[in-house]
Amino acid sequence: MHGIFESMGQVAPAADVAILMVGTFKFSGAASTFSVILAWLIYALWMVTPYQFSKTKANAGSYYSYAASSTKKGLLGPPTILSFMYYDITGAAFGILGISSFLFLISPEISNLHYIWIVFAGAFTAYITAVTYIGVKPSMKYLAWTGLAEIIFLIVAAIIIIVRVGPANSTVPFTIPHSIGISAVLFGSIFSILDFTGSGVVTTVSEEMKEPRKNIGKSILFAMFLTAISLIPTTYALTVGWGIGNINGFAAVNDGGIIVFQKYLGIVGAILLIVFTVNSYLTNGVAKATAVSRLWYSAARDGVALPERFGVVHPKFRTPHLTLLLWSLGSFALDVTMGLIYGPKAAALILTEGSGLAIISVHIMANSGLTAYSLRNRNGKPWTQIVAPTASSLIGVVVIVISVYFTMASYLGAPDGSNLAYLISTMVTIAWILGAGFLVTLYYARRRPNTLVKAGEYDASAQ
Predict the structure, then answer these.
(1) For the chain, which ranges sit under pLDDT 50?
(2) Is residue 458 in some structural domain?
(3) Dihedral through CA 43, CA 45, CA 49, CA 51, nearest 10?
């Protein structure tokens, strides 16, 4: 139960409705449901790798430890952890700026207090840091019970909206309109992929879970099922509830989800969505802080990317408190800086674009590690350990290429500040993954080869 909702907390379905789906609707329009389904299928394929690796070891380093320990001399370790750290820092915008912009834009009275969103961002960061700092058990219980209530609410709300829409229900949301084309739908799917990102982060608490080799895989499967039944029907309900003919207006308003919920569920439905959205951001923050602190701790313990002094746990709470504080302060500083430049809502989407590319790169590297592991041991399962990870990596490359093309085409077609910011976010992400990943790997390979050889080898289940 705790493992499932560590993943579901990171997914944060109600918060997805508040911000990530805005990005999907902005680019995919009436085809947003198609984008979400496509993203779920892609992400389900990507979950084959952590599912398979979870049977072999329990290491808080998650994808980093998988990629490092499965490749020759650990060469995929540095680029994987650096890509993951980039995702962790930029992806924090989903929670920190997401809840800040959601509360900031919820009413004109609040929006008129121009910098109040910084107070929201600071309070949110302090809250998730404190809850995560004091230990894994209290935070996991909080994630489990509030997460279950959130999923039930979204499913019931979606059913009510779909039923009340009646004759306006349509098959259009499941198609690709000629007016936008496949490239826009695929670019929208990047935001949709982020709707499901987090389903595999239960691997980061594997060192603290009972029978991890059995329960991690179960947690991933249940989390993927729950994400599908909570987000796909909700996306469709928002599409037909808003109206397919003018769906482009959904992304143009600050609170499209609240408008649809209030229209079909009344003021009570709107208030419940607000409450669950705020809580969803909080659970996302706690789940992310839990995962990030343990992932960075694992790398620091190995002496990769971070100084080894960060690879320690708190003497009382047994949490990796130093990496937690490092991430909290770094992500908060970046988010406030970007929020001051672009505004909290736009900054969240811009940073999320980069974090999406970074996490796709992480999956590609981990997939490569699984294939290398299978080939080296010569006793692997060809379909799940070679074919599936290779196929998902190819899909990931296609998504990255389309993203680069779309951001460049958008800027060249309309060279405004917003499109330039998306382009810069994309280019900086690619440069970081390729440049920093290559240079740091080269440094370790030449100066500290033994560090790479031992990277990701720790296995709590074997202790």
Answers:
(1) none
(2) no
(3) 90
The b-or-e profile of 114-138 (16+ CB within 10 A means b, else e) is eeebbebbeebbebbbebbbeebee
- Residue by residue, what is the 3-state secondary structure of the chain? CHHHHHHHHHHCHHHHHHHHHHHHHHHHHHHHHHHHHHHHHHHHHHCHHHHHHCCCCCCCCHHHHHHHHHCHHHCCHHHHHHHHHHHHHHHCHHHHHHHHHHHHCCCHHHHCCCCHHHHHHHHHHHHHHHHHHCCHHHHHHHHHHHHHHHHHHHHHHHHHHHHHHHHHCCCHHHCCCCCCHHHHHHHHHHHHHHHHCCCCHHHHHHHHCCCHHHHHHHHHHHHHHHHHHHHHHHHHHHHHHHCHHHHHHCCCCCCHHHHHHHHHHHHHHHHHHHHHHHHHHHHHHHHHHHHHHHHHHHHHHHCCCCCHHHCCCCCCCCCCHHHHHHHHHHHHHHHHHHHHHHCHHHHHHHHHHHHHHHHHHHHHHHHHHHHHHHHHHCCCCHHHHHHHHHHHHHHHHHHHHHHHHHHHHHHHHCCCHHHHHHHHHHHHHHHHHHHHHHHHHHHHHHHCHHHHHHCCCCCHHHC
CATH code at 194?
1.20.1740.10
325 in a domain, yes or no?
yes
Return the pLDDT at 62: 95
Query: Is position 257 within any domain?
Result: yes
**Inside any domain, residue 195:** yes
* pLDDT of the residue at 380: 67
Question: Between vectors from CA 245 to CA 247 and to CA 274, what angle results, nearest 5°?
Answer: 35
Q: How many domains does the chain have?
A: 1
Q: What is the pLDDT of residue 102?
A: 87
What residue type is 83 in one-letter code? Answer: S
Q: Show the domain range for 299.
A: 2-453
What is the per-residue pLDDT for 108?
78
pLDDT score recorded for residue 298: 97
Answer whether 256's CB lies under 8 Å from 20's CB: no
211 Cβ partners below 8 Å, 6+ apart? none
**What is the value of pTM for the model shown?**
0.90
What is the chain's Cα-based Rg? 21
Among candidates 457, 52, 106, which has minimal Cα distance to 275? Answer: 106
Q: How many other C-beta atoms can be found within 10 angstroms of the C-beta atom of residue 246?
A: 10
HSE-CB for 166 with a 13 A CA cutoff: 3
